[in-house]
User: Which sequence fits this backbone?
């Protein structure tokens, strides 16, 4: 079993930046692909970005070049750098691992999840 712990969330103003981290521990063999998801109150959890061992990435359309997903394969730490944040980016952000498909943004493909870290963007 793999444990995922997110950190780095917080409150920022419109146009600000945040960097999220996700530390993986436990049975990290075959942890990839990994991804970031988010869920706003009253909405379904949606995919933000996916990465496979740091060599290939996919982003949701709403990212529009503002976010960058990366992974340190030595420490098994996943990152999400977010810039030019908008109020609609406000959500709980979750780290996910062990997708059954490459570059998937479908939450149903992931088998391991963290507890989430809150991101709040105010105008």
Assistant:
């Amino acid at each position: 079993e793999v444990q995922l712990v997110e950190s780095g969330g917080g409150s920022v103003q419109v146009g600000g930046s945040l960097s999220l981290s996700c530390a993986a521990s436990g049975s990290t063999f075959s942890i990839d692909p990994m991804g970031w998801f988010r869920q706003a109150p009253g909405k379904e959890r949606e995919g933000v970005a996916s990465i496979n061992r740091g060599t290939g990435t996919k982003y949701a359309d709403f990212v529009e070049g503002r976010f960058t997903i990366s992974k340190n394969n030595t420490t098994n730490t996943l990152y999400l750098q977010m810039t030019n944040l908008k109020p609609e980016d406000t959500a709980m952000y979750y780290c996910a691992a062990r997708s059954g498909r490459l570059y998937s943004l479908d939450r149903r493909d992931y088998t391991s999840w963290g507890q989430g870290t809150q991101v709040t963007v105010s105008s």
Summary: The first strand starts at residue 2 and ends at 7. The chain has no helices and eleven strands. The mean pLDDT is 95.
